[in-house]
Amino acid sequence: MKRVVLVCPGRGSYTRDLLGSLAKAPVRAPILAADAFRAGLGRSTPTELDAAPTYTSRLHVAGENASILTATCTLADHALIADAGAVEIVAVIGNSMGWYTALAVAGALPLTEGLRLVETMGQYQANNVIGGQVVYPLCDGDWQPVDNTAVDRLLADVPGLYVSIRLGRQLVLGGTDDAVRNALARLPARKAGERDAPFQLPLHSAFHTPLMTATAERAAADLADLALVAPRVPLVDGRGGVWFPRHADPAALLDYTLGAQVVAPYDFTLSVRTAMREFAPGALVLLGPGGNLGGAVAQALIDERWANLRTKADFQDRQAVDPIVWSLTRPEQRRLALGAATA
Length: 343
Description:
With 343 residues, the chain is an alpha/beta fold. The protein is 43% helix and 16% strand. The chain has two domains: 2-127 and 211-338, Malonyl-Coenzyme A Acyl Carrier Protein, domain 2, CATH 3.40.366; 132-202, Alpha-Beta Plaits (2-Layer Sandwich). It has helices spanning 29-40, 46-50, 57-61, 63-84, 98-105, 111-123, 149-157, 177-186, 213-222, 250-258, 260-263, 268-279, 294-303, 312-321, 331-338, and strands spanning 2-8, 87-94, 132-137, 161-167, 170-175, 190-192, 195-197, 199-200, 235-236, 242-243, 266-267, 283-286, 325-327.
């Protein structure tokens, strides 16, 4: 049985091509729980959002809906993997909002409390986007490092601009509206996959920066009674810290989740590195929706020189014969994660 690390994505993962994907999920319990939770609040359920005839920013990108949609897809995928029992889960990591679902996946929060955390933080964004986030690659199309002194100068020169997320060989900057405009105007044009960069993430606040201090304070008051416990499976946070079963302090975990995690940079790259060094898994499994963290995970592995990976071509060659990053969206990798009988 292969040892794996589960990877929980951030809220921007539910994209246009995933519309209708929840309806096809074979494990229904987390979806039904999320539907009941949202219905009890008088809000559109994840199933209703997923079944919309068209994908729109108002419904599917706004934080108050995107968060619960992403979480529901993630939790449904985790339940599917857990039920299949084909792999040994040795650790859980997440990116940005994925930290909240990672808490539930690792057993540090009951399902309904995980939904409550996601919903509370998502609803804070309703008609209340604070600043913004800009994505910028730190490498070329072959994932090789390039000169990034322009980024350093920008961070030094522009008030209200901060590092938000370290995402493989990409950087997410967060800042005030003026700082975001400055970044978009001054950063040299590059390609981020098929997209032109820099680009702004739509309807995203400047999470993981000091601009979210008031949000963190509000969350600390509203979620002071969140039923956090030590996780059943090790958790790696956005600082590279490990929260171990039986030993993690629930009060400290709550303080991090509603404090530093909200206002300080989230280093997803470091969380991958720590998970690989501490737990030496045979693979990392990308939970849904989609598999958009695959590139960032691969770049983090290349930074680590894991399994002698040094280039994008190295990673692609490895994936072709013995995949180390598994996405449930790819049939051959889905079979690895679930076992041939259940895939």
